[in-house]
Design brief:
196 residues, 76% helix, elongated
Length: 196
Amino acid sequence: VFLIIFLESPGLFAQKTEVYRSDNKLYDEAFDLYTHSHHEASRKLFKEYLSVNSDPNSELYENASYYHALNSMRLFHKDSEYLMEHFLLDYPESNWKQAAILNLAMYNFNRRDYDDALRWFDQIDKTRVSFEKESEIVFKRGFSAFELENYTEAKKSFFEVKDKDGEYAAAANYYYGHIAYTEENYQTALESFQKA
């Protein structure tokens, strides 16, 4: 009897595989939408994937959690910061950790919330980013400090970037010169303004 039931019910064992394939298809569609900058559609599919996938320890679930939060950030949704911070709490050892911190820093910088931007910029491991991205991070950290009138910290950041080749050198020289001028260090100010 058992053999007959077993042979007549191939769907009993195929069901989980089909659901697994369906979940992966949903993830793949969400990721494809993300790579084509369709953030709202991607966000919805990642959210759906997270609701049907019951294994928060799987790599795909972790990735989906990250991309769900990232899509929300790209769209400036109100819950995006919460989602990314929640991701960091749920996956403190994730390969996405530095990217999540960087995205939180940039998100707050773009919203002109310089207190939070500075807090996140200070948590970035600059040894794990490219030279170009490091210059951007250091400059934006300095600019955040400058906007908060923390000129000592701003000056340190601008000094680190001002003599490097790259997109942020001229602006760093300008702000570094401005701070030097307010400190009545006119020669340094002049030199920096000439490089700006």
